[in-house]
Specification:
Oligomer: heterodimer
Number of strands of chain A: 4
Structural class of chain A: alpha+beta
Structural class of chain B: mainly alpha
CATH class of one domain in chain B: Few Secondary Structures
Number of strands of chain B: 0
CATH topology of one domain in chain B: 30s Ribosomal Protein S18
Largest interface: A-B, 40 and 34 residues
Number of helices of chain A: 2
Strand content of chain A: 25-35%
Largest sheet of chain A: 4 strands, antiparallel
Radius of gyration of chain B: 15 Å
Distance between the termini of chain A: 40 Å
Distance between the termini of chain B: 46 Å
């Protein structure tokens, strides 16, 4: 038994009940395979960093669980069949982790002063709304 | 002849070591986003000054985040 975590990105057209259904199916697969679900996080709608099947948003959820490795094969098989699923990723879990900040909701400001994108408004179209420093490969890591 | 300026002897310190980060998560887009250029490339160690350990963690995290469309593979994909 090891701890894993799976993130699934669902079609943004789904409503809450459908999303819950999808999550439930995943949970069932895990429990039926002798695993145990430890945690379910629903991150909700997030903008995708790139278009997937003409969609720019996705509904993200994370499921942390404990199981034998065989369950992963089963999960993956189902994921690949499921057309409502835009992306999925299963990795070994490194323990509980807070869900991501939710990208452009501007509730940032955790550690110290940081120069981020100038426009505080979170409406961005896409990843890092303003593309300030065009081309040329200037580095983002420099200012922190 | 112009006299060459003395080489800058500013020592780069790994920011993540300074912050005492022990693991970098692919879900933490705020943190990882800082180590990616505007074009979506991973910033090389020689520029960001990160230590080997953290650079490896960054790389892994960025690659995972890309799969989930948390980070872009390239910036051309959207515009």
């Amino acid at each position: 038994m090891r701890e894993y975590e799976t993130v699934i990105v669902l079609d943004p057209a789904l409503d809450d009940t459908r999303v819950s259904q999808e999550i439930d199916t995943v949970q069932n697969v895990i429990t039926q395979g002798g695993g145990e679900v430890l945690e379910v996080q629903r991150w909700g709608r997030r903008r995708l960093a790139y278009e997937i099947r003409k969609k720019r948003e996705g509904i993200y959820s994370l499921i942390r669980f404990k199981s034998e490795g065989g369950v992963l094969d089963d999960l993956k098989r189902r994921f690949l069949i499921n057309e409502l699923l835009l992306r999925h990723l299963t990795v070994l879990s490194e323990g509980p982790m807070a869900p991501p900040s939710g990208e452009e909701h501007g509730s940032d400001r955790r550690d110290g002063p940081r120069r981020r994108d100038g426009d505080g408004e979170g409406h961005g179209d896409g990843w890092r709304s303003s593309r300030r420093r065009s081309e040329g490969g200037e580095i983002a890591g420099e200012h922190v | 002849m112009k006299t060459r300026e003395p080489k800058q002897l500013k020592r780069k310190v790994c920011k993540l070591c300074v912050e005492k980060v022990d693991r970098i998560d692919y879900k933490d887009d705020r943190r990882i986003g800082r180590f990616v250029t505007d074009r979506g490339k991973i910033v090389p160690r020689r520029i960001s000054g990160t230590c080997a350990r953290h650079q490896k963690q960054i790389t892994l995290a960025v690659k995972r985040a890309r799969i989930l469309a948390i980070l872009p593979f390239t910036s051309d994909q959207l515009r």
